[in-house]
Amino acid sequence: MGERPVVGRFAPSPSGRMHLGNLLCALVAWLSARSAGGRMVLRIEDLDTARCPRAYARQLEEDLRWFGLDWEEGGEQGGPHGPYFQSQRTAFYEEAFSHLAQQDRIYPCFCTRAELHAASAPHASDGLAPYSGRCRSLTREQAEAMAAKRRPAWRIQAPARRIAFTDGHYGPYAAQLDRDCGDFILRRSDGVYAYQLAVCADDGAMGVTQVVRGRDLLAYTPQQIWLLEELGYPPPQYYHIPLLTAPDGRRLSKRDGDLDVGALQKRYGRPEPVVGLLGHWCGLLDRPEPAAARELVGLFSWEKLPQKDILLPENFGRE
Ligand code: GLU
């Protein structure tokens, strides 16, 4: 950490209009990179093309700009590591997949969603249910016979390795890959490459040194560090951030339309009051006074940010 010039990233999935929680994540990622003199990359995570039409991505760029954020490369403007739309990066994922396939760790999995669901037990620490490994023991003949009937997903066998790292915000974290993560999917049965593979291939190829994202992804980080290593890339520094939750503790989602950027624009007219609120909740401002994103750069430090989830005030957005 520290020696490489900082390259941060936004990696939003444009499956709807961004909401306040997405803005929080984008703002903190931007402040973290900018306060370290770093660059920003915008990568559009639209692997699921049916759910992520191009119009949403355009709106997303517009909303980020409205909010006062900028980036040196990515999105429509492109750059040296493009394309920056995951839906256009299949060739990169194919290459990463064949690289991983050379090590005999990849196998076809025919389990249906329903079977997986039935077999999954709640996981002790983080809510992930590691795969049982059922299809790993299929013989080549069995797999071929099954593949004649339906297209398999492809999994990678997680090794018996402990990956430990220090999250920049939550501190030390470790997982035993085979026990805690289990064999995970690299390519879905419909041929679409999985998030885990795409995110690692892209963070690596785009030279990302700093990943800032919601703490719901912390549990996936050990397997991503391992995958990056397998692909020959150094891991970035990870910083997970608290989630913004509704007053009842529920995580905000794109269904909370009253908190999306369109609604915020209607309510506040300009970005400064929203930036100010988020800056206040992040411990950067004593009061929720209007501020431009760039005014928070000099005030940013990771120590000021809370670790506990940020609860929205009762009736926020509905008064
Ligand atoms: N595209 C993911 C999301 O919007 C984020 C992935 C990541 O930051 O690693 O939730």
Automatic annotation (TrEMBL):
<feature type="short sequence motif" description="'HIGH' region">
    <location>
        <begin position="12"/>
        <end position="22"/>
    </location>
</feature>
<keyword id="KW-0648">Protein biosynthesis</keyword>
<feature type="binding site">
    <location>
        <position position="254"/>
    </location>
    <ligand>
        <name>ATP</name>
    </ligand>
</feature>
<dbReference type="GO" id="GO:0005524">
    <property type="term" value="F:ATP binding"/>
</dbReference>
<keyword id="KW-0030">Aminoacyl-tRNA synthetase</keyword>
<dbReference type="GO" id="GO:0008270">
    <property type="term" value="F:zinc ion binding"/>
</dbReference>
<dbReference type="InterPro" id="IPR020058">
    <property type="entry name" value="Glu/Gln-tRNA-synth_Ib_cat-dom"/>
</dbReference>
<feature type="binding site">
    <location>
        <position position="45"/>
    </location>
    <ligand>
        <name>L-glutamate</name>
    </ligand>
</feature>
<keyword id="KW-0067">ATP-binding</keyword>
<feature type="binding site">
    <location>
        <position position="135"/>
    </location>
    <ligand>
        <name>Zn(2+)</name>
    </ligand>
</feature>
<feature type="short sequence motif" description="'KMSKS' region">
    <location>
        <begin position="251"/>
        <end position="255"/>
    </location>
</feature>
<dbReference type="InterPro" id="IPR049940">
    <property type="entry name" value="GluQ/Sye"/>
</dbReference>
<feature type="binding site">
    <location>
        <position position="111"/>
    </location>
    <ligand>
        <name>Zn(2+)</name>
    </ligand>
</feature>
<dbReference type="InterPro" id="IPR022380">
    <property type="entry name" value="Glu-Q_tRNA(Asp)_Synthase"/>
</dbReference>
<dbReference type="GO" id="GO:0006424">
    <property type="term" value="P:glutamyl-tRNA aminoacylation"/>
</dbReference>
<dbReference type="Pfam" id="PF00749">
    <property type="entry name" value="tRNA-synt_1c"/>
</dbReference>
<keyword id="KW-0547">Nucleotide-binding</keyword>
<feature type="binding site">
    <location>
        <position position="195"/>
    </location>
    <ligand>
        <name>L-glutamate</name>
    </ligand>
</feature>
<feature type="binding site">
    <location>
        <position position="131"/>
    </location>
    <ligand>
        <name>Zn(2+)</name>
    </ligand>
</feature>
<keyword id="KW-0436">Ligase</keyword>
<protein>
    <recommendedName>
        <fullName>Glutamyl-Q tRNA(Asp) synthetase</fullName>
        <ecNumber>6.1.1.-</ecNumber>
    </recommendedName>
</protein>
<dbReference type="InterPro" id="IPR000924">
    <property type="entry name" value="Glu/Gln-tRNA-synth"/>
</dbReference>
<feature type="binding site">
    <location>
        <position position="109"/>
    </location>
    <ligand>
        <name>Zn(2+)</name>
    </ligand>
</feature>
<comment type="function">
    <text>Catalyzes the tRNA-independent activation of glutamate in presence of ATP and the subsequent transfer of glutamate onto a tRNA(Asp). Glutamate is transferred on the 2-amino-5-(4,5-dihydroxy-2-cyclopenten-1-yl) moiety of the queuosine in the wobble position of the QUC anticodon.</text>
</comment>
<keyword id="KW-0479">Metal-binding</keyword>
<keyword id="KW-0862">Zinc</keyword>
<dbReference type="InterPro" id="IPR001412">
    <property type="entry name" value="aa-tRNA-synth_I_CS"/>
</dbReference>
<dbReference type="InterPro" id="IPR014729">
    <property type="entry name" value="Rossmann-like_a/b/a_fold"/>
</dbReference>
<feature type="domain" description="Glutamyl/glutaminyl-tRNA synthetase class Ib catalytic">
    <location>
        <begin position="6"/>
        <end position="260"/>
    </location>
</feature>
<dbReference type="GO" id="GO:0005829">
    <property type="term" value="C:cytosol"/>
</dbReference>
<feature type="binding site">
    <location>
        <begin position="9"/>
        <end position="13"/>
    </location>
    <ligand>
        <name>L-glutamate</name>
    </ligand>
</feature>
<dbReference type="GO" id="GO:0006400">
    <property type="term" value="P:tRNA modification"/>
</dbReference>
<dbReference type="GO" id="GO:0004818">
    <property type="term" value="F:glutamate-tRNA ligase activity"/>
</dbReference>
<comment type="similarity">
    <text>Belongs to the class-I aminoacyl-tRNA synthetase family. GluQ subfamily.</text>
</comment>
<feature type="binding site">
    <location>
        <position position="213"/>
    </location>
    <ligand>
        <name>L-glutamate</name>
    </ligand>
</feature>
